[in-house]
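Quick question about two entries, pasted in order.
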Amino acid sequence: MEFASNHFDYIMLGAGLSGLMLAYRMSQDAFFKDKSVLILDKSDKTKNDRTWCFWSENTREWDSIISKKWSNICFKSTGFDAEIPLTNYTYNKIEGLDFYQFLFEKLQSSKNIVFKTETYISHIETPTSVVVQTQAARYTAAKMFTSILPVERLTDQNRYPVLQQHFIGWEVCTQESIFEPEVATFMDFSIPQKGNTRFIYVLPTAKNKALVEYTLFSENLLPKTEYEAAIEDYMDALGASEYQITATEQGSIPMTAYPFEQHNTQNVLHIGTAGGWTRGSTGYTFTYTLKRTEQLIDFLKTETDFSQFKIADRYRWYDSIFLDVLYRRNEMGADLFTRMFQKNDVASIFRFLDGESSLKDDLNIILSMPKKEFIKSFLGFTKH
């Protein structure tokens, strides 16, 4: 739909997970039926540029676009190797392109929402509006949501440790049947750690097909050849004599407890990773985006000052401590996650990582961690 003017109630910068999810939730809520929404993105979202995975007890809303579900996960490290039934949970995979197509199809029936493929240049905020300049036009809105993260916000500070979850993944098709299609390898720390937190992540879809990712939680990225060599070594260890690489993916997600919401203003609110909607200690985003979107929809119905949208909770504090340990002692990652999975049931771990755990769950997980390093990080944070 085309609007008569270039003024909207809301502008969204970015048509990724958070932007499209927010627009979708608005389209489902009668409160926003008369609100005009402009979504801007430099991409037309017709490429399968990413994969989202999440665990859940109820996937009904997303079943039509979940490409694979696993009822078991595998965790491996030196001295601990377990296949873990997920009982009431499933581990789920959604391809980016399927998500985009599903959401855009849903949004087509909302005449108050329009999408434009344009490159954002800049914006200016006034006391009552936001002016957005793209390479093609100028738009105004009463309010703006942005998923654009200025990296200097993280690099120009040292109060909050920042690690990167960085990875390269190959979709492979092998001659031999070397994968277990119903078991996702959640973390395999049995590979050389080289002073970092390094693991292999495997999402099999058939006995001879899987996504194999080499992932690090560390401060600095690696040369591309080092990721690829690690995947090749892993495939050799699995017994894959020949295989085809049918697709590749790579990425880098900031892992931090940095309070992104401090950059929200009267009329501009940061969403997605730029708004702290990624779980700092894991990099998982899908479930957190669902939760934050629900909170934001409720907020928009009663509040007008975007600087008042707060998401701080005890989990950010947990993440601050955990990430400080991992930042100072990056080689300890394998041990930390091994302790977590060896000493706690998977349901309580998932609740904890989703921010839905009880204090008993929290206490059990905290007590399974090495006390000396965590006390050191705790004392460091209490000084600030």
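Here is the second entry:
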Amino acid sequence: MNINQDFNNLTFDLPKNQSNVIKVIGIGGGGSNAINHMFSKGIKGVDYVVCNTDAQALENSLVPNKVQLGVNLTEGMGAGADPNVGEKAAIENLTELRKMLEKNTKMVFITAGMGGGTGTGAAPIISKLAMEMDILTVGIVTMPFIFEGKVRQNQANKGLEKLKKNC
């Protein structure tokens, strides 16, 4: 018995023409890169969403579900590694984020890179919204390497503490 062969033949009997109950949301550059990779591998059975303040990164993503955060605040230019900007950008788009989560969502995986602006600032806001909507929420994040510096490390730790409250 070859386990890899068995997994290749695995299929799920999922309802057609209906949103999946699991959403995997990539927030910021790091989170969006992870989602782009999963999407490119053809992993099925979940809805992928990328959320970013960087309009060019969103445009380059093949993921069909996109939310540009902080259009008025950042004008599509990113959060400049400032978590406060990332947080305000997510707050600016709470209505759109709520609409996205209302579509048959029972579970959310949030992925983000901690230490930058959008992922660090917006991930706790989006996870809080999901929890308020009684959606099971799981956070999967990366932390900066030591060589990225103390400022980035401190920002990452603060962002992680905020995220833990809602995951």
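Reply: The mean pLDDT is 92. The first strand starts at residue 22 and ends at 27. Hope that helps.
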